[in-house]
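ingest -> validate -> predict -> emit
validate: passed (alphabet ok, no gaps, 664 aa)
predict: started
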Amino acid sequence: MASKEASTTLELEKGNTASTQDANTIRQERSHLFGGEDVPIYLTPSTASRLGSPTALAIGAFATTLTTLSISLMEWRGVTTTNVYIGNFFFVAGIGMVISAQWELVRGNTYGYTVLSAFGLFYGGFGAIITPAFGVADAYGQNTVEFNNALGFWVLLWTVLNTFFLIGSATINLVYFAIFFTVEFAFLLIAASYFAAADGHQAAAIGLKKAGGVFGFLSGLLGYYTLANLMYAALAFWPNMTTLPTHTNDVDHAANFAKQSLPETAQAWRERAKEVAQILAVDAAQRDIENRSPVKEVQLLKAAGLTRILGPKKYGGGGQDWSVAYQVIREVSKGDGSLGALLGYHLTWTTTANIVGTPEQADQTWKLLLEKDWFLGGAVNPRNSDLKITSDGDHIVFNGDKNFNTGGVISDATVLEGVLEGTEFHIFAIVPTKQEGIEFGHDWDNVGLRLTESGSVKIKNVRAPWTDALGWDPKTKLPIESVLKIPFTSLLLPTIQLVFSNFYLGIGWGALDAAKKWTTTKTRAWPYGGDNKEKATDEFYILERYGDFFASLRAAEALADRAGEQIRDLFADHSEKRDVTAERRGEVAEWVASVKVVTTQTSLRVTSGVFEVTGASSTAKGVGLDQYWRNVRTHTLHDPVAYKERELGRYYLLGEAPEPTWYT
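emit:
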């Protein structure tokens, strides 16, 4: 068989360039195909991601060269001569892929560098074989048997190399695996075609060559698919292409948790939360970059039982108090701040009926939530105008809109709050989320807590029975004074304020843990400090910074736990008779305010300060270390902490407890 055929065969190996993923990222992001400006497969790139990804160029060169080559292998329209493709071999594929590979090396992507370099150099070598000026084919003269055998062995050995790339791609996703898989068959068939030609079986050789061309053509099409996804995802108009993930090594964590019973002790609940946090942390940075709606992650919280920790055991709840729930929120936030916040809001809303409803409503609400396994969102942002409520027979009707609502998009039910028309009285009610009258804006795109789905919502003619108006008499349509006109009703505010502080604290711990992993494995010692060390972990200032951060977080955690005990004791002492005094309520509120001040300051300092002990390379987008500061900074602006400090000053200096408001 002619050397032209050999050139055709060897091109197919280019399919391997489709895999640009680093081994570290393979472990982190198995379920995502391609996307984002940086191709989210890079766990720890060391160069600023805004410079763009080199992968699209390499994949484009791969797809173009391989597809045209495969057309000649299949002899479409009589094309069999491959010399016209020499430009592709040397320049488009050879130089383009080798250059791209070097940039992958700079980015820290060993796998991508190896694949692109190998096949870029391969194409250059193959171009030399079919270029007449190099005289490779002429060196064999009329000995076509030896020439075809040599080509067959050459392709066969490249098949062996491709096998290693194929095995590596099995943990990435279906598209990459399919590219290597089709290349593998193309190479085997083409190697066989050369051996058949050497043995004088020309008809079989041609058939094998055409079959190899078919597999090469398929690989080229997959390459174009990948190119489009890489390039257009960066332009933010490519449709979601994550319909082909393989989840090769994915574990169905939700299913595993569903098989387990709920924890029985506080320590067991903390351990369960820690396990969930570790699962969430694996791809938290990537999900944050993609602003991916946390549907799957909320299901994980449900399956692990964390959403029912405060519920009564008689209905399948965890039977724990708030002091344990706060610790669980904190633990989850270490792995994913957005999910910790969502869990915290959900748990707050689950206890709404306990605080502003009658005992009967509280019991009915828990029964409903736990039996249906509902996750709650809330449209209760007090900085917007209240929803307007009108009475319509046996129902109340909500209308209005909110600029923010947390978790509504992925919730099963939503807490609504508004003012009854013609009065100044507020009403809380829980309604199913999936109904025509609730329209989400899907416009949450803030710098932090990106996965909390906290965008706007429009409420139009959403109805609820008067019997679901928490703390109201459905017959008289008036608030029940013994329920709503007492200090106990205002406990929702310090309760949720301590939720905030605990996920700030968890995010701070998450940042410190992530920084520790980076410093101990990546950060290099500074060679120009005078007292030079071999390892960064021996440098004085790094040890000093970590010691300071560690001590600060520990102190904040101790204060948060103490405040959690205050909330626990408050509910334990007064839930039955609802007889809490304004003084006791104020005392607990100032414990909570103290935590808010300390955790705000500490979490902001730690999440920004970790970069001082990790180095410049840790600022790469794919590392994800920035998510911690962004998450804390976004929510700590929820209500200015300066007002908490003033509140505490008045409490300590003048003995004045704050008047209950939406934020105190």
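The chain has a mean pLDDT of 86.
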